[in-house]
Amino acid sequence: MMTDPFTGGDDKLHEECGVFGVWGHKDASALTALGLHALQHRGQEAAGIVSFDGAHFYAHRALGLVDQAFGSGEVIAMLKGHCAIGHNRYATTGGTLVRNIQPLYADLSFGGFALAHNGNLTNAHTIRQELVKNGSLFQSTSDTEVIVHLMALSKAKGVTERLIEALRRVKGAYSLVAAHDNSLIGVRDPFGIRPLVLGKLGDAHILASETCALDIIGADFVRDIKAGEMVVIGTNGIESSFPFGQDGKANPSRFCVFEYIYFARPDSFMENRSVYEMRKKIGAELAREAPVTADLVVPVPDSGVPSAIGFAEASGIPFELGIIRNHYVGRTFIEPTDQIRHLGVKMKHNANKAFIAGKRVVLVDDSLVRGTTSRKIVDMVRQAGAKEVHMRISSPPTAHSCFYGIDTPSTEELLAHKMSVGEIGKYIGVDSMAYVSIDGLYRAMGEIKRDPALPQFCDACFTGQYAVELTDHDNLKTGTRVSNLHERKAKG
Amino acid sequence: MMTDPFTGGDDKLHEECGVFGVWGHKDASALTALGLHALQHRGQEAAGIVSFDGAHFYAHRALGLVDQAFGSGEVIAMLKGHCAIGHNRYATTGGTLVRNIQPLYADLSFGGFALAHNGNLTNAHTIRQELVKNGSLFQSTSDTEVIVHLMALSKAKGVTERLIEALRRVKGAYSLVAAHDNSLIGVRDPFGIRPLVLGKLGDAHILASETCALDIIGADFVRDIKAGEMVVIGTNGIESSFPFGQDGKANPSRFCVFEYIYFARPDSFMENRSVYEMRKKIGAELAREAPVTADLVVPVPDSGVPSAIGFAEASGIPFELGIIRNHYVGRTFIEPTDQIRHLGVKMKHNANKAFIAGKRVVLVDDSLVRGTTSRKIVDMVRQAGAKEVHMRISSPPTAHSCFYGIDTPSTEELLAHKMSVGEIGKYIGVDSMAYVSIDGLYRAMGEIKRDPALPQFCDACFTGQYAVELTDHDNLKTGTRVSNLHERKAKG
Amino acid sequence: MMTDPFTGGDDKLHEECGVFGVWGHKDASALTALGLHALQHRGQEAAGIVSFDGAHFYAHRALGLVDQAFGSGEVIAMLKGHCAIGHNRYATTGGTLVRNIQPLYADLSFGGFALAHNGNLTNAHTIRQELVKNGSLFQSTSDTEVIVHLMALSKAKGVTERLIEALRRVKGAYSLVAAHDNSLIGVRDPFGIRPLVLGKLGDAHILASETCALDIIGADFVRDIKAGEMVVIGTNGIESSFPFGQDGKANPSRFCVFEYIYFARPDSFMENRSVYEMRKKIGAELAREAPVTADLVVPVPDSGVPSAIGFAEASGIPFELGIIRNHYVGRTFIEPTDQIRHLGVKMKHNANKAFIAGKRVVLVDDSLVRGTTSRKIVDMVRQAGAKEVHMRISSPPTAHSCFYGIDTPSTEELLAHKMSVGEIGKYIGVDSMAYVSIDGLYRAMGEIKRDPALPQFCDACFTGQYAVELTDHDNLKTGTRVSNLHERKAKG
Amino acid sequence: MMTDPFTGGDDKLHEECGVFGVWGHKDASALTALGLHALQHRGQEAAGIVSFDGAHFYAHRALGLVDQAFGSGEVIAMLKGHCAIGHNRYATTGGTLVRNIQPLYADLSFGGFALAHNGNLTNAHTIRQELVKNGSLFQSTSDTEVIVHLMALSKAKGVTERLIEALRRVKGAYSLVAAHDNSLIGVRDPFGIRPLVLGKLGDAHILASETCALDIIGADFVRDIKAGEMVVIGTNGIESSFPFGQDGKANPSRFCVFEYIYFARPDSFMENRSVYEMRKKIGAELAREAPVTADLVVPVPDSGVPSAIGFAEASGIPFELGIIRNHYVGRTFIEPTDQIRHLGVKMKHNANKAFIAGKRVVLVDDSLVRGTTSRKIVDMVRQAGAKEVHMRISSPPTAHSCFYGIDTPSTEELLAHKMSVGEIGKYIGVDSMAYVSIDGLYRAMGEIKRDPALPQFCDACFTGQYAVELTDHDNLKTGTRVSNLHERKAKG
Hints:
Four copies of one chain form a homotetramer. In chain A, 28% of the residues lie in helices and 25% in strands. By secondary structure, chain A is α+β, with helices and mostly antiparallel strands. At the A-C interface, helix 1, helix 2, helix 10 and helix 12 of A face helix 1, helix 2, helix 10 and helix 12 of C. Strand 26 (485-487) of chain C pairs parallel with strand 4 of chain D, so a sheet runs across the interface.
């Protein structure tokens, strides 16, 4: 997930967060650190843990990877208590500010409250302006803080009631984990856009963005939290409710299909589907929809591997690691001189010439955003002697921005927004180019086809059909700042 | 001001803050960094600057000395604008948290607002509890944030009016510098307990805790801000008002006399008095009040030097640097083994044996808090061969805690609270012991005597007569926490 | 290549070094940094570059990855000149000392001389003792320094002659790159145990441990340096000679076969063989030698992938990523409490349950040293529901230590030294266990069979038949120290 | 001793090193760290300690202050043994290289040997060239390494004999502390130019550059090591010899008189004279030689204080701290813009206006090298309103470079080399200017006058009469490099 200075980024969309929570284990913060480690792919810029020991809350938040921030026994020892929640954060435009690192913590009139959020609220800005007008002081530039202010101002009695009242005001995608005096709370927004699962480790309860975070600590998977569900975990066990629907029941889910395509770890299960299996099935679907006569199926590493295996199995064309990735690529390297840039330095990838030369190659990648990296990879494969290069993408064209917690470039930068598939193929220099169709994607997911009236998944980035209304985006002029302050960016 | 692990601290009271502000200079943040550097003795744990360029605010706050945090051109370049305010902070009990570093900044409904505070509010806790109850979220544990919340909730129209409304609610000692859209504001509390001066550098206006911060940038001293005065500096020049008094006039001042004794830099002028000269005069007064037949007057370095010179001149006894200080003593050093501790290691001071041996020595120090360092110094001077050792202290006995912005030990730890002067002399091991009298101190300041009805200075630490009521202290049980959160202490 | 605190290391042998050199390019040091980056897998503890601009030498050596040490333009700018040599180092027992980081540099009577070495000398200790007796002062504990001292004491006229004289005294494995006034020198030991290749980038000449370091800068591969060959590259082009053989010709090579099995990068070519292809062929050979009826072939990531693909293709059993690796595993993490350790935390690997459950699984790994990691992986796969687990290793049993530049545990720690194949299978808990045979390995390499009289490869770690005599090992008692000094280990 | 970026350095000559050694104490390395701390003024760039426990040597060397490098108990615990030697280093031109930090350590044929050196050899370069020619490899660019190479090549039997043989070859100033198997050795060069004292702490023996390093650990001063004396301290106590003189006796000493003027700490005794007392006596001598009618005597802080006190006492003019120094001035600060530089920013010093205005001021400083700082100080005092400013310098004009271990600018940069005293006075802008005379200086030292035939002190920097011949300086062209290598400067 590192940026390659020679190619200008890894050309992927990025998940913005991972969340984790534990109730009822004496090593709650250590388990949370491990859980965040397993969720590291969901956010690499910063991490935080807040724990609770029945009397006090304990917090540590830091820039960098989980290992760096929470690797020392001393830090974990300071985070006392049987309850802990944690958060991984991916930096979005505007810089990484320490005060933006989650979990948020607030001293409310009824006691301490800590909150971690995966997703994005689509009317946070609008509410924030109103709150500031009435005298609320915001400490972060994060949309999540709106929830805590609404709770602080609520006249409801209990914490849960205040949280429900606050969430009824906000719109968007949210999978939340929260901790206060006598409970650990998990909530998924009414459409269930972002993931959240429930696990068990002995008598302890776990909440996590993905099942791989249960696996790392040997916890059992219990079930997915449902769309619109709130679970309150305390000494009396788990209480479930659906406070946002009209009838107190679960909504039909609109889970983010891109989690299957790229964001989630291949060993995770989401909504009862194996991510790895879904990727293979998309690859197989792609092989059927866009067959090609070729000698080799080569994944663009590392994310293209499962769909390439699926494509190879379905097509009968041999699978080969035709592109080798250097796993030591760090965040920064020599700012190249013009002459060196001209060499077309291959910091991150190298073609496996022995297998490429003279062959017809099918490249399989999961998605294509700006196309810059793909151009370089195609060129590298051609220089290694490939006779033909065919690109197959295991998602439909990414033509619309996401407003539900994914870091997407502006629509103008999305290649699929401004070019047809054929033009994209020419732009990146391949002999043939194909994406999986939207219905092919739904078939891979086990559906017969996409239901245009009520799509089974959130696929707005492909179709432009947004599950939740985009209040801020519609109301506000571009560039309206949340804060008037430019803080010096912390060193990461 | 460093802590000596072998003696257990420098046994002094400590000023908690220095403030600085500039309006109307293109190098505002560089000047502020220099000003904070000159005020470094008022706070060494953290420093911050917020600047304003007419459109945006820019902030940097960091642990450590001003040089470390603001020494790079890159940091200063980021702090754009013609207006800047800065703050030095001395860490008090409870740890140094980045979120407590000032200036505070808030996005209020009318725009950005930045505030730096020297002093301490005596009813902040009481107000805070009420604000939290009504839905305010506090980000720091600092008392200063109360002012900003009161402003956010004010229904007054202008910024100045909101600030006045807020300040009318709070009690205590405060010298404030604030910046917002169209002005730089300076305020001194109704008793003028902490210092604040006005300066001029070409067309630019300067506010600073001490005149030495004007000198470093070559600015001219204009005048002290008066007790209870607010100055609003903008494009129309300076507007002065007295919004807290009954009649819009300045109150009689109760300026902190300890600024003259120890806190301020000797080259500063405060309320038209030279600090260095006041120290010499106290020394002279002490020589008259408590004369002694001796061979040498030796200052306890470095703060005892001016009063020792004054004592020597008045008594005719020669002044000598009989104790040499090692200026390289850092914050940490080898944790001594028992055997090494037993050696009585002299990390910081060494007796100048050539001059001490066989002599009758008068040691002059400015104050004595716990007495631990004094004991060691007296012992060191005796080991160097002194025939007699007499201690003279250029302040009255420190017997009461300060609640107006000075870091004081609890009353129980103050030596003068539990011992008579004679007992103190025995405890530290001298042949004679004397403090200047309270009237002697006032005489040195140019007064005939202390006016018990309306003392000319705040001298509560000596007399227990507090200028402003101690609401929090009186209302609250000890140990009531402002926040329920224990955050990991930042590394300094 | 990171150490997993929960499994006790990655249970692999490790290459100790990578070398790189450039002659005749104005960006010599930038190219060297890039080359070292591509060779990062050959040594992650430290890196160094020495450059030469015709008048002076310039050096920078630092602990850590190449990116960290050489990522800034400022460092590269300081390393001036048209010639540069570089070195990656893997820390061996005894700690990482800055003075041991290569390239070595010495001011000899004829001028400066810089040297980088991949390999290990087997009589360095014996020669060193003799040199110290005669007055030589050693600055490092590295065996390489012996070569420079022998050169310093040589009475031969030219640098090349002195180097030849020195190398005739030493025994062992060495691929050297050296720089002095008027040439870049490359040497491979008489048996050609460690790799060294020659490349060309425009008019510039390149020397590198592997071809992947040519690829990264877009240089063309020219040829392997031959066993016993010395190339001297200067303004007159390349001069080749064979100064160590009896007849000035190349020796029959005994190239390290483990480079193909694990050390080298899969995209490199060595002695005209594709490393990736060799790995696939060993996998295929293994499938023929040790067939098994199963549902899935699963590589132990990442190094087992190519041989698993070969095994899958030859056996017709589907290839699946049944074990997912977390690429964020850092060097340190929470020191686990007993309770957490008991959980069997999976920091680095997770089973892909969707594909494992109920299946007969063939695990393919490249080698097995102590067996600790393998046990945990087998256990993890079983817990994920595998019906059967079969282990196939794409190398013969590793039963002997290497003395030619590979970091091997002592013989006692090698599992294959103390157990039969069947016992190993029981120990790690599999249903069946097989290694490729030594002749199978040779067949994969394209040989008919191993020639026991004059083996075509160095395979001492499998056979115990050492190519070069082990003078130090035979002469010296274990534990004889090279230096009497314990230096504080530098922080990496 | 920090550099002020606004004034261009502190305009002083600098001692290059301090040395310390302990024999026979279980806390040898902790005592050494404390001793080095007391000697910090003799070198702030780097520090090192080598200890010996009877079997092994242990070393740690690092850039920065002693507190930073040796402040942790962990470092001290690693430096085991009853014997330790230490070294403080002041960086000279050419950068601070880690490999140059002392003590040097070498594995010689008879065992380990560690050496720390205060001083400078005047024929090191000449010997080094000869050694390199014969095959010696140098690891540092320090002159001290020559001694160790000469020992390595010596055919003498014992360590002491080898050291004597080596020292008979070298010329220059050296106070050495060395450690090997069965002894701690101290040596002072035949002229005793640099200081070295012997102390006792219980049964342990101490060697140190100054007595203040004995005081810090409570050790007793025994005596100065004599000119040309070698002491060998071992289990049999102390053996003293004079191996360099013709007759085995001490030479007449030529101790560096500048140690009294500026280098040494005022609380140290050197050759039975109190440094503080000598400074006062020079001040008194100066008052007699160059009297002036004035209102105040003001020291240039901090080094001018003792001579100013002496001047004040002798002249009867009151002593005042008319210039206040900011002790927080760090190594770096804002690179000033032209406009800010123009302000004449006073980072380090400020005039005490209350006492200066309208007064005739005598400034007393210990020495004047380039005059840059003096100009600024005179200007600052005039701006503070002084009616007259008179400069008195408590040393004769510094007109010649030192080659005996002091960091001196080139002769061309010395103000006194190119200007008369009157011209210097005009240049720095004073009303009158005077230096103490060379005979006045000798009188202050207790001599009747300087003996031109055999001066009682080394005063070459004033007189140009060098005690030891300057072989390298006479033989070699300027700019001959010791090494052909430019190593990247370590970060300090």
